[in-house]
Specification:
By secondary structure, this protein is α+β, with helices and mostly antiparallel strands. The protein has 6 helices and 6 strands; from the N terminus they run H-H-E-E-H-E-H-E-E-H-E-H. The protein has a 4-stranded antiparallel β-sheet with strand order 4-5-3-6. Strands 1-2 form a two-stranded antiparallel ribbon. Helix 1 packs across helix 2 and helix 1 crosses helix 3. The two termini are 40 Å apart. This is Transcriptional repressor PaaX-like central Cas2-like domain-containing protein.
């Protein structure tokens, strides 16, 4: 069964990120030293609009509005993790160096949600799936994969390898639009 995606807007994402960084206290809603990331939201929606966004996030159980400090709930921390992962991009050099980067994983069933998040990242970034848990990419991606795996706590279950040749390479060359 596919998990339901949270319905959350860009403004709410910014608030979640600020709360996650500890930049947001209840007092900052009425003070001029509002975190920089939230100033455009404040200008667009005003104090009442910002308070409404916070109440909606609390209603969705992403944050707890305390007396002084706003804190992320466990659901909010999970969402923050997804936001950070969705913002990770892999830079592509102008020319392909001819190396293939293989990502293999064997993530235990107890980490199914994290495995699904990891697979979604690979799909979203156009990795080529050669087997159920073996993906190929033509550009260096070791650091980005390591960051994601560390955030998802699946680092011990993922391997990144590099090779110059692969069977059925022409399918991958076509998939990525590479000149061989």
């Amino acid at each position: 069964m596919k998990r339901k995606k949270p319905i959350i807007g860009e403004n709410e994402k910014e608030i979640i990120k600020c709360v996650g960084l500890g930049l947001f206290v209840v007092a900052s809603i009425v003070l001029p030293n509002l975190p920089m990331a939230l100033q455009p939201i404040f200008k667009m929606r005003g104090n009442k609009g910002l308070q409404k966004l916070l109440k909606n996030l609390e209603k969705k159980r992403y944050i707890n509005l305390g007396s002084e400090k706003i804190k992320l709930t466990s659901k909010g921390k999970e969402l923050l993790q997804k936001i950070y992962i969705s913002e990770i991009t892999i830079s592509k050099p102008k020319e392909w160096d001819g190396n293939w980067h293989l990502i293999a994983y064997d993530i235990p069933e107890i980490y199914r949600n994290y495995r699904d998040d990891f697979r979604e990242f690979l799909e979203r970034n156009n990795f080529y799936q050669t087997q159920k848990s073996l993906w190929v990419y033509p550009y260096e991606c070791k650091e980005e994969i390591a960051v994601i795996c560390k955030n998802l706590n699946i680092l011990p279950y993922v391997i990144v390898m590099t090779t110059e040749k692969l069977p059925n390479e022409e399918k991958m060359v076509a998939h990525f639009g590479l000149d061989n």
